[in-house]
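INFO batch 0412 | record 1 of 1 | parsing
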Amino acid sequence: MWERTKNTTKLRTFKIYNIMAKIKSEAAYDAALKRIEYLEDFVDDDTAPNDPNALELDMLIDLVEEYEAVHYPIGKPSLSPEVALGM
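INFO prediction complete | emitting tokens
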């Protein structure tokens, strides 16, 4: 399936990304948000980048951002008539 390497961090990251390819439902999105909130208690600026919790947190944040870009897009801001009149 995949080769073992000396660098277990790459191996672990590859494994994590293959397990959760995308968030496909609102329930999975909510679960990911709860897991992110939980992991934030264990990951801070002093946490090693190859820490399993840090890797999972990064992966979940990427997946949530991808889901939000599709399901909760933020449109381009436009000048409202009130702002345009003030100019």
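INFO post-check: Confidence is low (pLDDT under 50) at residues 1-18.
INFO record closed
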